Amino acid sequence: MILFYQRTSDRDRIPCIRFGVEQLREALAARGVRTAEERLRFYPPATGGGGPSNGGVSAGDGLSGGGLSADGSPVGSSTGSPSTGAVSAGEGSSTGGISCFVISLQKDGLLPGLGTLARESFVIRRTGGAVHIVGADDTGAMYGALDAAESVLLDGPDAVKDKHELPFLAKRGVKFNLPYQPYGPGEVFDKNKELCMTIDFWRDYIDFLAKNRYNCLSLWSMNPFEMMFRIEKYPGATPYTDAELRRFKEVYTFIFRHAQARGIETYLITWNLRITPHIAQGLGLPPEIAARTHDRKDIGIRQSLEVVKDYYREAIKTLLMTYPEMTGLGTTNSEELTGTVEERQQWVADTYLEAAAELNFPTPFIHRTNTSNGTVTQEIFLSRYNHPDKYISWKYSNAHMYSHPLPRFEELFNAWGSMNLEADGIKVIYTVRNDDFHNLRGCDPGFIARYIHGMKEGKNYVAGFYWGADGYVWAGETQHVSNKHQNWKYSFEKHWMQFEMLGRLGYNPNLDPTLWEKKFAHKYGAAAGVPLYRGLCAGVRILCAVNRLYWWHYDANWHPESMLSMGGVKTILEFIENDAMPLAGMVSIKEYAAGKRAGRIPPGENPEHILALIAAELDTIRRNADLVQAELDAGRDAEDLACAQLDLLAWHALGSYYRCKFDAAVKLAIYRGNGDEALKADALGALRLGLDFWKELSLIGAQHYLPYYMGRVQQTFGWSYYIDEIERDIFLASTVRPESAAEKY
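The structure corresponding to this sequence follows.
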């Protein structure tokens, strides 16, 4: 089979298309189909054996015998020699009648009548024995080749069907927390410092993103400048030697260039004002001025110093000159600044805006406004920023994307004030945070598709999203015991399900849902893969329900996979009193109890519904886990199936614990109002049962996961470490009294 594509020396075109062709070639090889590659200018081949001079393909060019007709169907002899890469008669039966794939751009004009294709879109058309893959641009052609490769791999060449796909969201990105000057310390960052300074890692990671239709890589750090270059004006503002800086520059340059070669934009995003002790000393300041605290006084001192402002201007100018392949910049006017909204925004304008203006080299910019004011951002910064690609960013679900598919925090916090985003030419790119689960595998394409559709409902100003965690990074595998389970190199490979669903559904949220079952069946075998997929989806749906009923805005306050916060394990008393997710149509436990007492339960999703949902999803997990276990018992341990099965069982244990805790919280809340001792007894029984499930969860986790320090909640992850605190809930519940009795004390 011949793969025709552009093979000129045009560097702007080759990398993306070449990558897509490589994946297609590998998929065909996995199906036993031999291939040869040929230049696009030799398509269509002549029917009479002419050479390149008359548009035909000679034997040396990859075809022999009768060749192909203009529509790609065989003409004359079809018994080409394997040495030339032509497909023999025996092989043709495995190709579904396909003789060649033709990968081109719309401007090449090989498939007329398509209309104007949108950016990054592609069309696949079968014409006779040829499959045409036409991209609107290089990235679109790559995506088309990747789509065809997936069809070939999962179902064979004949499964490649006519289609036209275009991106639903223009920006589909990841939030990658660089382990150098991260927002908060954490063991996962310390363990990834060496890996993230290797070119091999970034090649593998960026290729992985491209396969999953991501086109935006945002790199986050408090202050990455000191390791990216030496500033001429402040040469001492870095602790690194020239040799170290050259090594770092090689890696960063590779990141930006290789991302370009995969159709991915790169943004370097900071938390505005952060200097290290070495930077402070390089500016002639005492190192204490760089104390890493969120104390308003410390921040205010740094913010007021002109030399710090000047350092930032010089750093940004040096960054733009040193790394021209980098797409853009980003920062915020909140976390590391103090004062009024206007004062904080003015500092950003005095540094980032002025640097771009001084250099006369404006670059795309992402301005975050998560705890600030969009109107002020527009007035002081965005209206003066001279580049058409300027984005304003907002935390779409705060820290908990796995909750409700239609979050309404823009409305709750009046994010845009009096702004008219469309009229002002400003696009929104959402920050999507998964600070819900970092260790267990899982995702749910139904939830993600609805979530992504919701981003644009009535909001034409939305460009897209980038997603990730705040206190975590999926890079090297640091949390799994090094045993026979681990057949992956990087943690993002273990979590391919989540990465792939967010990227692919960001490009096309209307993908056929059966795709995911096919992918799991291909990886694990149908008998184990399909039930594994269904069970993992159910586990994530439980976590979404948990977050809707028990809500905290930010990750430092709540990490539901571990049930931890900066204050430790969330107690049964907190579950009784806490609010539900705002503007989500959710009735909290305390509201539900009050409604029961008054005989009028507020409308909306309530604790009864959540408990019923969790029970149904637990049944789904149990049934599917039994099917997976039957395959393991029969000796069919494909890929990392045994490890994934433990995750499935962990979801069941964790979900069962939450079911018990919510049940107890509801009964205790009602008991406080009516004094029914039977309810209290039932609640205590539910907590005792929950303790058993927590111990089960602890045993599952201890079989293959390592503890690690979580910087954002400032606790060590490991379910077994908190058995005593889970058991303490039983005592706390025993102290709950009816409100009338409590008033006497």
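The longest helix spans residues 641-674.
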